[in-house]
Predict the 3D structure of the following.
Amino acid sequence: MLRRGHEENAALVNVASVAGNIIGTAPDWYPAAKAAIMGWTRHMAAYRSDDVRTNSVAPGMTDTRRLEGFKESEIGQRALGRIPLGRMATPDEISWAILFLLSPLASYINGVLLTVDGGWTITQ
């Protein structure tokens, strides 16, 4: 909860994905679901801002178990070559973005999609 004068306002951060907002990927349900998360985020920001400040984070490739071994593969090397920072994100880097949006430092940020992808989407 954030305290503004005598008001308290909650903050919510949804986890979307670059796959649902810029890139797309297989299976087709994944980007559709992630795009829906951003749509819900915008709705909450526009119509429920008296109750909660709502934003989303859109991670790019993140070094988790789901992508274990990917960076060593041929396709993984090609994908990493298209990321300006040249690597996947760590889970902590995604968490830090979420923590920022939840913090008082972001108290006037509402309805945004914060892309955390090392610059990948700008190279597509």
In short: Helices lie at 18-21, 29-47, 74-81, 91-102.
